[in-house]
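From the pipeline queue, job 12 of 40. The input is one protein chain; the requested action is below.

Action: predict structure.
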Amino acid sequence: MKFKTIAIIWAFISCSCIDQQTGSHDKLTYHYDKQRSGWYPNEAMLKPESVSGSRFGQLWQTPQFDSVDGSEPRLFASPLYVDQLTLSSGPYQEKTFSVVFAATDVGYLYAVNATAVDDIAPGTILWSRRITEKRSRWGNISTPIIDLERQRIYVVGNDIGSHYVHAMALGSGEEIENWPVTIDTVAINRPGINKNGAAKFPEERRLIQRSALNLNSDGSRLYVAFAGSGSGWMVSVNTRSASVASAFSATSLTEEKNGGMWASAGPSIDSDDYVHVATVAQNSVAIRQQGISAIFSDSEHNWGQSIIRLSDNQEKGFELVGTYSPFNYAQSQVMDIDLASSGTVVIDLDPATTSTPHLLVSGGKQGNVYLLDRDHMPGSLVKRPPVSEDSETDGSLLAPDIQPQFGKPGPLNVFGPYEDRNGMNNQARSRSTAAYFKSENGKNYVFVTGSAKTGEKVDISIPPGLARLEIVTAPGQPAYLRVDQLEVTQTFHNPGSPIVTSSGGRDAIVWVLDTNAPRTTPLRGRNAPHPVLYAFDALTFKLLWKSAPDELASTGKYNEPAIARGVVYVGTDRIQAFGLLPSDQASHPIFPTPFKTYAEKAIVDPKILEAGRTILMERCISCHVSGQPGIPTLDIISKLEGSVIVDALMNGSMAPQAVGLSETDAQAIAAFLNEISDQFGN
């Protein structure tokens, strides 16, 4: 498809966005770097006083990206950025551009011009490639990663039946020779590949690849994480031979289905190439009220609801070298209060300031934030600790202060109220990955996003939604976290991960992209939410700027902007760029309504209605009449447009529960629900 670029004041951008800053402006992976720090330390143009002024606004945007089979695109994957790239083919061959890369959930990868070059406007599509040739539930929802030295971008395409790891040339979008690498039962279930027991990669396509990709230090190993209705998996791909090198299942037995690796951040990697990832619960345990026995707390080598640390030897593959399970992992796991809704962040401090300079930060749906000594992970390498209700037994680095929710020391709860029962779906306090920042006075901070909850069902979001935590250190003493400040004026509903821009330790700004709706809200259809982008002064929490209502097109979940040379690139159903305008005149481009006008309800074949009723009764009814918090009732979902119901089953929040259903089955369910919607009234 050929796009006509919608560009605004691009001539200004071409002369003002190339400055004299030093340091890297490339954003090659999720959360800025392989450590997942979330900190852009070389951004001198975006200062609190400039962002809060009248000149900051929308500069340009691309047209809406390609749709597939009537399904409009969304960016669950976060945009990436390469500062200087010379194209190797196509109409712009041998021209050098600053480029934004974007992957859509319907299976396309795009290279977008970021700044004007000659008469080529920002927002121009330099190349695009379809990475899923078959209609897929998830074309791509994980953030790719760029190997700048080898001039390639790795991206996972989720075709029906298998996952394909593509390596594509940055300058052309062409597939590298011998790629893609297939990840399926043939690749994973070979002898010696899985390093954790006898668990088998599922034959049916029950896994989803949402976690961002990551690379080791020399680019020879690519890490791909999976979650779904079975065990979670970490897969190591040998990028030199284009083959699967090793795998690690979250459980050692196939039948022990938990430990998915869901977090959008994917694994973090430290300077010694250790891989860190958090694992989750299984929501069916909570829905079916199966209790402690369903999480296999006494099983060896079951690492559900834990953080694991892996080495990856070139010859031997993965080896488990560290674990951590919160003291209440069992209680939270049976209620689907996932630990791994947050990614892990590697932080290295000056050894002169603390006895624990090599840290790891993570969080979860419960609203807790955990600080770990990653060199001395507290858990066993055989099994998780016994079930406990004593917060002082937690193996993370605990503050000496009494935590109000426990009446004694324990993990830090940031977004409350603290509890072990209500924390799934719309009740979750946080699903984002923290960001690190070191100020010019030497203080180490961690920023986290989420939302406190209130209401009868504990599912109404209220402030705080943003917190600044200080990493408290003293020579010879272990570090710990304490709340330094809470932002209490803005309400986030389902925010992505915070990122921090600064010029070294000065002029720090925290950026947050909030979906602007609860987690279970459909992201397609005429009532799909429009996200909001926020900018806060990092040290005062003054709100500097936020996007106007409906200024951003609808997007996916848990993504974050890319920022380079004074421009903020937001992925929605397109790329939208924000920065300093040439004058005080605001610029808010009007773009075409991204949603269709739906026809009135038509007469449906009774056989289709009966098929939909049968599937609903067999597969869906028990959950949607259960009364469990956060699970919409039949009267709510029956009033959704049919296309939204189908998309939720095929591509959205219900995809893991809809495994085995065809799109025809989903359409039948939607038709039946719409047919009975009038029975529920308004």
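Job complete. Residues 1-22, 586-601 have pLDDT under 50 and may be disordered.
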